[in-house]
Amino acid sequence: MYRVKSPAQEGRKIDPLIITRIKDIFFRYVHKGRFFLPTSDGIIHVFDENGKEVAVIKPEYRKQEITPDLESKFDRFFSTDVRFKLNYTRDKSGNRIEFPDYLPLLRDYRVADGKVYVISNKRKNGKYESFIFNLGGNVLKKLWLSLVEKDMIEFYPFTITGGKIYQLVENEDEEQWELHVTEIK
């Protein structure tokens, strides 16, 4: 969500957020012999087992501006979250932090039941603007999905199958995990 200005990469460790995204891509997005690869422009490229591109998924996103209020929330999050605090604080004190003008177009996606569920960063009434595509890249439906955020950058774990979202959400008051099941309409 933030980036370091002109970092000296030699000898530096890879950011844990990048490692998480690499794991997500290589361990979650293979379905029926097809590999789904998102790019920074919000497009998902679909490749077959031979590496040939067979489809492109291009949702009709609208950019979501990072307002000063949202930037302030991200600053507090990265300054206090144990995963980012050390690097963020160091880079911020060196005046090497900059926030982009807009949130990433693609928030998350899942491939299930022969469909691609694409979730954008646009939020309204606690739900996220989402799109359902067939495996060929044709949009089937635009809808708003209800998902619970774990923090500023990720959802609690969820999967989609049989037309339902199954999400494991931590109830901190009760100190237990709850399974939330939401039908996709």
Task: Provide tags for this entry.
185 residues; alpha+beta; four-stranded antiparallel sheet; 3 helices
Question: How does this structure look, described?
Answer:
By secondary structure, the chain is of the alpha+beta class. It has one domain. It has helices spanning 16-28, 68-80, 85-93, and strands spanning 3-4, 30-31, 34-38, 44-47, 53-57, 97-98, 106-112, 115-124, 127-134, 139-145, 158-161, 164-171, 176-183. A hairpin with a 2-residue loop joins strand 11 and strand 12 (164-171). Helix 2 crosses helix 3 (85-93). The radius of gyration is 18 Å and the shape is globular. The two termini are 31 Å apart. The model has no long low-confidence stretch (mean pLDDT 86).
Short description:
The protein is α+β, with helices and mostly antiparallel strands. It is built from three helices and 13 strands; from the N terminus they run βαββββααββββββββ. The protein has a four-stranded antiparallel sheet. A four-stranded antiparallel sheet has the order 7-8-9-10, with no helix packed on it.
